[in-house]
Design goal:
Blueprint lengths: L3 E7 L3 E7 L5 E8 L11 E2 L1 H19 L6 E8 L4 E5 L9 E2 L7 H11 L5 H4 L8 H11 L3 H6 L3 E5 H9 L9 E3 H4 L5 E2 L4 E2 L1 H6 L9 E3 L2 E6 L9 E7 H8 L8 E5 L3 E8 L10 E6 L7 E8 L3 H11 L7 H6 L9 E3 L17 E3 L7 H27 L6 E4 L6 H11 L3 E4 L4 H14 L5 H7 L2 E5 L5 H16 L7
Parallel strand pairs: 1-5, 5-14, 9-12, 15-21, 21-22
Antiparallel strand pairs: 1-2, 2-3, 4-7, 6-8, 10-11, 13-14, 15-16, 16-18, 17-18, 19-20, 22-23
Amino acid sequence: MSQYLGALDQGTTSTRFILFNRAGRIVSSAQKEHEQIYPAPGWVEHDPVEIWQRTQEVITQACEACGASAPDIACVGIANQRETTVVWDRRTGVPVANALVWQDTRVSGYVAKLTREGGQDRFREKTGLPLATYFSGLKIRWILDHVEEARERAERGDLLFGTVDTFLLWNLTGGVDGGVHRTDVTNASRTQLMNLSTLAWDDDMLREFVIPHSMMPEICASVSDFGEIRTTCLRGLRVGGILGDQQAALMGHACFKPGQAKNTYGTGCFLLMNTGEKQVASQHGLLTTVAYQIAGQAAVYALEGSIAITGALVQWVRDNLGLIDKSEDIEALANTVEDNGGVYFVPAFSGLYAPYWKDNARGVIVGLTRYANKGHIARAVLEATAFQTREVIEAMEADAHIKLDQLRTDGGMVANELLMQFQANLIDRPVLRPAMRETTARGAAYAAGLHCGFYKNTDDLISNWSVDRTWDAQLDAGERERLFRQWKKAVTRSFDWVD
């Protein structure tokens, strides 16, 4: 009898394959990074061929590490970086260009033109999303408009579009030899091309963005049969679940009840709240998105607050400023001072996402004096993540009319105890770190397990969730609000930097 579930977790900076047992614990894993490509200011690319190569390598390594083969694995799930856009030739499998990453801002000209013509929220009722550089639809249009012969090839039906899940699924299931061209509702909801109510590609949106329907993958429930794997050592297994990474983390936290929320502290921060089968239209700068759908059941929706730069700011301090040797060194450096010394860092490197949605904002450091040193800079870097998270929580509570009683967390930054304590101080409620921190991959495995009967129902998943540590607020209310007022003032200094 199969004893494991496989999860392919393809993220912004690396690709991992993890085998989980029935208790949701890791049996084996392998991880490899891929190149971050910056051809111009604001442009961010990945090589899809490299990502596919890394995918094959980590699958093999994770299975070999524990001696597992396909018969030991019940089913496979995929979680992926969302909005990142791949266009490739269906006959050769070759991408027509590098993938345009979710952080890429090169479509700002399209955003500005469409906003002038009808306002930033002109498509929000249909798609749940404001006009922004973030989403996939305009990235597809850019590729068709700027890559030689791409539009002609697309109109002939030769080109396929997919977010990274779709590109990997197509290759896993055979590629040019009958590869399956599908995605799930969570990833489709991040393209700005899917109608949130019908869960189908919206013909009006495709016409507005000048994208041929023939490029688009079939949309499926998140927990459903996506096809048989015909490549790698997983040959013969089924892909039974696909979720965008943040929705996968929501499932990994077992947030199946309306009002439950999680925050993932990764390259960016992504706070999602389950709103049940009800779409909640945001009035405070959040996104309405699909949380997940189990085949044969109604879709479950979520409110999301997306923050572009959090963990990426630590990497920037490491790589661009050289203040630390390793990302984890940021905590020790921040602990050399007692507070931020009046320094605030607003990391609007690619504009501001929720709740502002200002593409023309840029990063600023404010409050500098001769007193400030690198410890204060490090502390300001960490505090920026907590400040941005509080802004999103306030917007989410206003939209959903639900007050969060706790914040469940995951992602690489949750190992930083200084950050977690400051987060609890700032939001004045408990911050919980789960015993299993790899919630994104676990959510993908859970989706696959629900599909193939490895788990009976979501109650099995709820019983697997447990807490490793809880942080409670330890800051005077007056000081909390003073710090937050200064942060809000700092944010305004980043506005309208790009003409």
